Amino acid sequence: MGLALTDVVVGCYSIILSILMLSCMKATNASTIANVWFVLILSTGPHEGTVPSGYVTAGRIEKMEVVKGEPGDEKTKKKVCYNIVFVTAEAAPYSKTGGLGDVCGSLPIALAARGHRVMVVFPRYLNGTPAGKNFAAAVDVDCHIKIPCFGGMQEVAFFHEYRAGVDWVFVDHPCYHRPGNLYGDSYGAFRDNQFRFTLLCHAACEAPLVLPLGGFTYGEKCIFLVNDWHASLVPVLLAAKYRPYGVYKDARSILVIHNLSHQGVEPAVTYKNLGLPSDWYGAVGWVYPTWARTHALDTGEAVNLLKGAVVTADRIVTVSKGYSWEITTSEGGYGLHELLYSRKSVLDGITNGIDVTEWDPSSDVHIACSYSKDDVTGKVNCKIALQKELGFPIRLDCPLVGFIGRLDYQKGVDLILLAVPELMQDDIQFVMLGAGDPKFEDWMRVTESSYGDKFRGWVEFNVPISHRITAGCDILLMPSRFEPCGLNQLYAMRYGTVPVVHCTGGLRDTVKNFDPYAQDGKGDGTGWAFSPLSKESMLEALRLAIRTFREHKSSWEGLMKRGMERDCSWDNAAEQYEQVFEWAFIDQPYIS
Ligand SMILES: Nc1ncnc2c1ncn2[C@@H]1O[C@H](COP(=O)(O)OP(=O)(O)O[C@H]2O[C@H](CO)[C@@H](O)[C@H](O)[C@H]2O)[C@@H](O)[C@H]1O
Questions:
Q1: How do strand 265-267 and strand 223-227 relate by DSSP bridges?
Q2: Could you count the other beta carbons within 10 Å of the beta carbon of residue 108?
Q3: pTM for the whole structure
Q4: CA 568, 574, 576 angle in degrees (round to 5)?
Q5: Cα 288 → chain centroid
Q6: Long-range contacts made by residues 517-524, C-beta under 8 angstroms, separation at least 24?
Q7: What sign has the CA pseudo-torsion 129, 131, 133, 136?
């Protein structure tokens, strides 16, 4: 295929422009120049292998894109592309226990689609169940490394799959092969989780240096996105283990906080296991508040991996704006609020997007009948099918309320437990899907046996049924005590299911309270956000929603329609992440 003359002209223009920009920058900022490449892209064809064609393997690649609008209206746009390394404990569809898996399974794809080179590093879990087939397409890249930690040299291997424009890199070690879920089994959390995720972090720091994915390593000029406590050792390792030897001087790290309530806290004596130099204790060292100590001689000394990332990462992102503020307060900061407040200038909130391919009522393979915002009639069939599946009487006039989530203090399940005896007096049907705290699981089973024709407690982690509940219900209840972003309310709105949520964190940011009088009486809003967090205010909001469903059909249709029309794709969030990457590279590494 030959080049058109216009392409050649634009190409020459771009080369000249690049040379000019390069010399300008030389005069101003020599250290930035070291990791900036100007690449002229005449045409952006499909990616081959893992190195997008026309790219240079570097931390930051400035790509001159020819933007073609109307004929004669061609202009050159600068786009900076990065080598991005996600480090996470889970990524869907390979492994998922909650929203972290959803985000790390879809944000990398959105960033790759925007031109970045993206790798996701996470464990190769095998628990002896059919879930193991999720890893079947990954191949052993025949690269074994030895990691110095926990008193010896631990050998890990890497597996790799290139899918949807992303390098999925699986860290392999026997500690990830055992029955149970990703973090524990019926006896509780695995006792060696600190070991398992220390290995992950060390391996993730090596991956860009040693893995020739598609023939080229990512190299050390990259940006690490470290998710939650499991990946939090990465920025500490960059600062303590690599930069003193001149490695990763041009890399940056961003801590992404999905949930501050889990911090990876272990006794202080375990510091020696982490593979950090002895004089770096201060980065991860932490002292419990007095009230949390267990006995009079307890000094409260501990290592806290998330705290280590808060003090060493170049920037911090939380998964909604509301939550980024909440974590700087004593109510929401879980003991880290003062530290987080001190880093306020590099703390941003970016609301999660959702995987709009997996969660699309017009093509969802799990639901009984497809529908869309332009034709919602199929939703009725989904409701009938769900009522059948749950053994409820088939009644379209009866509001069907759902709850999906981990059975955990965070999700406000205790509030539902308190409210159910009253709620069951009303003419409603209520389904709860969740697994977690055994005391809530038992309560769901008992409640189902007491209110057989109107309450179902589905105790399991089951993705297909979560889709069917999202599609078949009229209302989704989320009384979360705190919610960094929340995904189920986003899925619900996309499926025309109206959310009733506690007004907190990402729920407050994404669910707009219904106002029947707005827009000259046409109404506005996408659901109900109640406050304070009490049984009474939750019941009041739920009953208001139920009354609107029963008595104000056009208002209800408006609520459904506005929810379904919301833009919740990842592209918008990915663009905001790009802004944060740019800011991260403007500054020198926070700890150099
Ligand atoms: N029993 C079950 N069966 C099937 N699917 C189930 C299930 N229980 C939960 N899920 C699924 O797991 C995901 C849960 O995501 P959330 O964002 O609501 O919460 P989570 O607290 O895990 O995530 C944390 O990280 C995410 C991502 O940043 C933040 O949105 C959130 O606020 C934060 O607490 C959803 O996809 C949901 O459908």
A1: unpaired
A2: 27
A3: 0.88
A4: 100
A5: 28
A6: 522/558, 523/555, 523/558, 523/559, 524/562
A7: negative
Match 């990457």 to its residue by tokens.
Answer: 581
Please give the structure tokens belonging to residue 516: 């029947």
Gap from CA of 93 to ligand 1 centroid (Å): 13
Over residues 11-20, the pLDDT tens digits come to: 444 444 444 3
Residue 146 backbone dihedrals phi, psi, to 5 degrees: -110, 130
Regarding an ipTM greater than 0.90, the answer is: yes
Question: For residue range 539-583, what is the model confidence (pLDDT) as tens digits?
Answer: 999 999 999 999 999 999 999 999 999 999 999 999 999 999 999
C-alpha 485 – ligand 1 centre gap (Å): 10
| Nearest atom (ligand 1) to Cα of 435 | 1
H/E element, 254: strand 252-257
Strand order across the 265-267 sheet: 265-267, 301-304, 285-287
What is the number of other CB atoms lying within 10 angstroms of the CB of residue 542? 23
Burial class (CB in 10 A: 0-12, 13-18, 19+), 105: buried
* H or E element at residue 77: strand 75-87
Residue 406 near residue 436 (C-beta atoms within 8 A): yes
User: Ligand 1 atom closest to Cα of 92?
Assistant: 36
Atom of ligand 1 nearest to the CA of 488: 18
Which residue ranges have their beta carbon within 6 Å of ligand 1?
A: 98-100, 102-103, 258-259, 319, 352, 404-406, 433-435, 461-463, 466, 483-488, 506
Q: Please, where are the H alpha helices in 79-158?
A: 99-113
CB atoms within 10 A of CB 313: 30
